[in-house]
Design brief:
Number of domains: 1
Strand content: over 45%
Strand order of the largest sheet: 2-3-4-5-6-7-8-9-10-11-12-13
Shape: globular
Distance between the termini: 31 Å
Helix content: 10-25%
CATH topology: YmcC-like fold
Structural class: mainly beta
Number of strands: 13
Radius of gyration: 16 Å
CATH architecture: Beta Barrel
Number of helices: 3
CATH class: Mainly Beta
């Protein structure tokens, strides 16, 4: 389970997942960014309540469920829960902005500055920096650069074969440990595969099933 939580943190940064602005960059963005995100902005990370993903992490099945929309610091965000054996073991808050999808909170810990999970619009070769801290007191620091390696990457997981947006963070600094992270996002489905490598050890998360909110009623 410790390895799973590391994957989830990276994955939005995740160190996961991704790219927060430095304080100066964030201030500039707040002045210039349009008020509304593109109409299909959440296509690569569906945020409709009751959307559900089932992943396989080694021999462990893990569910990720979109719970509800709620306000955080005057912004409308979406709460996403992680469940193991039907029990919620972690919660995160995501916020969709004009320039991308941001992770703003993990469990009770605010992420400062927020980490951009995906930039909008999607563009092959785009890169962004991360320099964020999870938790105000003695929080874990995540630093590095993410890049969209390919916007038409072929990937095969238990749930099927897809054409994905491949995001890579090479040699990320996660709490003082060098880590390489790769994430595959599919339009209309979300995250289908995630891998992270520390030294010669690699861990992989793969999608087994995705249930859109409409399919669950």
């Amino acid at each position: 389970m410790k390895r799973w939580f590391s994957l989830r943190l990276l994955s939005g940064l995740a160190a996961l997942m991704f790219a927060g602005y430095l304080s100066g960059q964030e201030a500039t963005q707040n002045k210039a960014a349009p008020a509304k995100p593109p109409a299909d902005a959440d296509g690569y990370f569906p945020l409709t309540p009751k959307s559900k993903w089932v992943y396989k992490v080694q021999d462990q099945a893990v569910e990720v469920l979109v719970d509800k929309n709620e306000k955080f610091k005057d912004e409308m965000c979406t709460k996403v829960d992680t469940l193991v054996s039907g029990k919620v073991v972690a919660s995160e808050l995501y916020c969709l902005k004009a320039d991308g999808l941001y992770r703003v909170k993990v469990k009770d810990d605010e992420i400062y500055p927020p980490v951009r999970v995906l930039p909008l619009p999607i563009q092959k070769g785009a890169s962004w920096e991360i320099n964020s801290k999870v938790g105000a007191q003695s929080g874990q620091l995540v630093k590095g650069t993410f890049r969209i390696v390919n916007d038409k990457e072929k990937v095969k997981v238990p749930a099927g074969e897809y054409e994905a947006v491949l995001v890579e963070g090479a040699d990320m600094d996660v709490g003082g440990t060098k880590t390489t992270v790769r994430l595959w996002f599919v339009k209309g489905v979300g995250l289908v595969r995630l891998s992270y490598k520390i030294a010669d050890a690699e861990s992989v998360l793969e999608l087994e099933k995705y249930e859109p909110a409409t399919a669950q009623g």
